[in-house]
Specification:
heterodimer, A: 460 residues, mainly alpha, two-stranded antiparallel sheet, 20 helices, 6 strands, 50% helix, globular, B: alpha/beta, Alkaline Phosphatase, subunit A, 3-stranded antiparallel sheet, 12 strands, 14% strand, DUF1501 (chain B), signal (chain B), TAT_signal (chain B), DUF1800 (chain A)
């Protein structure tokens, strides 16, 4: 077991926490190597070479379709949760989750959602330029941001606006005229709904001259993306966002971020290099950045599975927890992505988070009912399971963690699970809880469950 | 009657000892804290899914309405007619009773510019009161923030649900979600949670994020104790219809009768997304809604608390004017909004009937921005400066 505090912090941020089976000493170079491992999700298939898009206005088979989309969305969602906790893909999956939030997108079709997710996964640690171009031509994103409706004679600015405001430059670094002209350049960017492939429709494209960010020309959508990438502000904006997600949610350290952004820009937006610079720095491990980040619901859930090696008896349990804590993969609230930080924590969500380990590991029953979002066609409103149980090999964990004395064992488990030490009072509470069982595996289960139920476990 | 401040001092200092969190207590010693004597209460009812406003308040004299909805329109002879142009869906007979008593105000054509037809986005727009920007706070949460700087009193706004809506989340203060006081009490008295709360005071926690967690935990426990002590026993009020919605309203009445100092209650009811075979489902939902609201008003009236209450009902959007091919309706735009209170200066239908001649691509065009209704309620009912909460000034209305 590697309980070095630096390794733990690295794993908390670059992945979903240390995993019990992970015996190799973890240092940045081996992780960088492991990040090249890339495993697309391939559970939703085309039927007869065609994508079936949900269409609520076809009453004949509406019910059957809804049932199918329920199954597909559930399968896609739970497959990703299972994949997040595979030791060989941890870092890439965490990056994919980060981009899943940055390039927030919500469409009904599980196939399109899967396709975008794989694009993001493939490019997650490559060049941000490639990632941006791939996402901008992705059918799910074009659909979500109404670019199918963006045509020469009736431009739709939604896509251009969000590309500038949320994906690249950020508010205050473009004008409304830039949005209008950018939107004109993206006219004709569309996709074929049968094949789910990008198509350029020349007849819908506005060939006229456009002025964008001070330059004038007959710009295409690709030209606009190049101009955006030529602007250092894009590197600054992305670096700040990476900082807030992986380093610290508070105000950024301006000098460090500026220096990272500069190197990022000159490396042709090499994400691998940027992340390596973060994780191999000395400041990343300073106490001011350790243990202050509130885990998002998915991070919390993936962390609990990673740290126990557990698997849900019914994979749909993962969906129940996402709904209960208001973060459902593939269903961000809007194109701005999910909330962050203390916005996750209120009276009921905190109480639920503190009860969650007992629901998962101790078969506690809950009457908690997640909210219905009102959408009759949102299949996940109905996807429920009451089997929240998770199979964990507690005997093996007991073997790995048990030391000569109870006190030592508790200290090792605490170090493994908590980003920062808890109080003496809480330690006593955990000890009392664990002492209820005499069998090694049961004892370990009680100890893990109790530590994971503490407010401290909400932090990484 | 134990005042809130005394209750907290007693229970936190006396009975449970170290549970007390100094910053938490300070909230109650803050002279700006919510005055306990201030009795005006807002109840927000959210109809999730997009209620079909045109089949709720029916323009029964309008030929266009019947042309657009050949099989879904409410027949003129079934409509409960209350004006020359408008009437209630027959399932709203109880609501018509409130109308007759002068308790009901109906706004038509309420919406916002560039309407969004996605449920989640439009609901967020109504809850954050911000169509322009994506916000992490809701209008009631910001009301809590603005009304009581420096204090943190989750149970000033209560949502009757297991999870808390964005509407009730402020930057510093977030409302409390619970199904009923007994359930909440039992949940936090689950021994582990309670012991963690008791064993640790936020004061001993230096890290601001962890401090926030322990503060939230302490508030949850103290709110649970307070609400349970005040209103734990089920009330012996009048009978309510059997429905989840009515059960929530009954709990709200129980809390109001117990005079807990909560200023805002939030109740939602789902199922209004009627794309397919709308008629029976919509009929059932409207019946549950109007029976529930009426029982609630009667319950409050009997013990003379209705004078302190204003109920606002909204939905994230209306439906399209024309019915679809599945005997239902798809997502639309502007919609009606109900206000129920004894203090209406203007009663009944408070603005124009929907204009079915001038449509935007088959959708109603909004004539009243919902933020004007919020601004009026904030200004004249909750008595706070609306601009602090809505960030812009919206014209207030004269209905209260």
């Amino acid at each position: 077991m590697n309980n070095d505090p630096k390794t733990r912090h690295f794993l908390n941020r670059a992945a979903f926490g240390p995993a019990p089976g992970l015996k190799t000493p973890v240092n940045t170079p081996t992780w960088i190597k492991s990040a090249s491992h890339h495993r697309p999700i391939d559970v939703i298939r085309k039927v007869d070479g065609t994508v079936m898009l949900p269409d609520q206005r076809q009453p004949k088979d509406a019910k059957a379709r809804r049932a199918r989309f329920l199954d597909e969305l559930t399968e896609l969602n739970t497959t990703w949760i299972s994949q997040m906790v595979l030791p060989e893909t941890l870092w890439r999956e965490k990056m994919t989750l980060f981009w899943h939030d940055h390039f927030a997108c919500r469409v009904r079709s599980a196939f399109l959602s899967q396709q975008l997710n794989n694009v993001v996964r493939r490019e997650a640690l490559g060049s941000f330029g490639d990632l941006l171009k791939a996402v901008s031509k992705d059918p799910a994103m074009l659909q979500f941001l109404n670019n199918q409706q963006n045509k020469k004679n009736s431009p739709n600015e939604n896509f251009a606006r969000e590309v500038l405001e949320l994906f690249t430059l950020g508010r205050g670094h473009y004008t409304e005229a830039d949005i209008r002209n950018g939107a004109r350049a993206f006219t004709g960017w569309a996709f074929n709904p049968k094949t789910a492939a990008f198509v350029f429709r020349p007849r819908a494209h506005d060939e006229g001259p456009k002025t964008f960010k001070g330059k004038t020309g007959n710009f295409s959508g690709d030209d606009i993306l190049h101009i955006i990438l030529d602007d250092r502000q894009t590197a600054q904006f992305i670096t700040e966002k990476i900082w807030r997600y992986f380093v610290h949610e508070g105000p950024p350290d301006e000098d460090i971020v500026a220096s990272l952004a500069k190197d990022f820009f000159h490396s042709d937006y090499n994400l691998h290099k940027l992340m390596a610079a973060v994780f191999s720095s000395s400041w990343f491990y300073e106490p001011r950045f350790v243990g202050h980040r509130i885990k998002s619901p998915v991070e919390l859930l993936a962390g609990m599975l990673t740290q126990t090696g557990g698997r849900f008896e019914d994979p749909r349990a993962a969906l129940f927890f996402q709904r209960a804590l208001s973060q459902i993969l593939f269903q961000p609230p809007n194109v701005g992505g999910w909330p962050t930080g203390t916005a996750w924590i209120d009276s009921s969500s905190l109480a639920f988070r503190m009860t969650m380990p007992a629901l998962i590991f101790k078969n506690l029953i809950t009457e908690y009912v997640p909210k219905d979002d009102g959408d009759a066609n949102n299949a996940t409103n109905k996807a429920a399971t009451r089997n929240l149980n998770c199979a964990v090999d507690w005997a093996s964990l007991a073997q790995q963690f048990t030391k000569a004395s109870t006190g030592e064992t508790l200290a090792v488990v605490e170090d493994f699970l908590l980003a920062t030490p808890t109080t003496a009072a809480n330690r006593k509470l955990v000890a009392t809880q664990a002492a209820r069982s005499t069998r090694d595996d049961e004892w370990m289960k009680q100890a893990f469950t109790a530590f994971m139920s503490l407010p401290e476990y909400q932090l990484s | 009657m134990t005042s809130r401040r005394n209750f907290l001092k007693q229970s936190l200092l006396g009975a449970t000892g170290s549970l007390l969190v100094p910053t938490f207590l300070k909230a109650f010693e803050n002279p700006n804290a919510f005055a306990e004597t201030h009795d005006k209460i807002l109840v927000v009812v959210q109809l999730s899914g997009g209620n079909d406003g045109l089949n709720t308040i029916v323009p029964y004299r309008n030929d266009l309405y019947y042309q657009h909805r050949p099989s879904l329109a409410v027949a003129a002879d079934k409509v409960l007619k209350v004006s020359d142009e408008l009437g209630f869906h027959p399932a709203l007979a109880p609501l018509q009773g409130l109308y007759d008593r002068g308790y009901l105000g109906v706004f038509n054509n309420v919406g916002y510019p560039n309407p969004d037809r996605s449920h989640f986005r439009s609901m967020d727009i109504w809850q954050t009161a911000s169509p322009e920007r994506y916000l992490q706070t809701g209008w009631i949460g910001r009301y809590l923030d603005a009304n009581c700087p420096g204090c943190s009193v989750a149970d000033q706004a209560i949502e009757l649900d297991d999870t808390l809506s964005l509407a009730l989340k402020g930057d510093n203060i977030k409302g409390l979600a619970m199904k009923d006081p007994r359930k909440l009490y039992n949940a936090v008295h689950h021994s582990f949670i309670h012991e963690v709360a008791q064993n640790n005071t936020a004061a001993t926690v230096n890290d601001p994020t962890l401090h926030y967690l322990y503060k939230t935990l302490a508030e949850t426990v103290s709110s649970a104790d307070f609400l349970y002590q005040k209103a734990g026993a089920p009330s012996s009020g009048p009978d309510y219809p059997q429905s989840d919605f009515s059960k929530k309203l009954k709990t709200v009445a129980q809390l109001i009768h117990a005079r807990v100092p909560t200023r805002v209650y939030y109740v939602s009811m789902a199922g209004f997304d009627t794309h397919v075979n709308q008629q029976a489902q919509h009929q059932r939902l409207l019946q549950l809604y109007s029976e529930g609201i009426t029982a609630f008003v009667e319950d409050l009236d009997k013990r003379d608390r209705m004078k302190d209450v204003l109920i606002m009902t909204f939905s994230e959007f209306g439906r399209r004017v024309a019915q679809n091919a599945s005997g239902g309706t798809d997502h639309g735009t502007a919609n009606n909004l109900f206000v129920v209170t004894k203090h209406l200066k203007q009663k009944g239908f408070l603005n124009n009937t929907p204009d079915l001649l001038k449509l935007d691509n088959g959708d109603l065009i909004h004539q009243l921005d919902f933020r004007s209704v919020y601004a009026t309620i904030l200004d004249r009912w909750l008595e706070v400066e609306p601009k602090k909460i809505l960030s812009d000034a919206y014209p207030t209305l004269d209905f209260i």
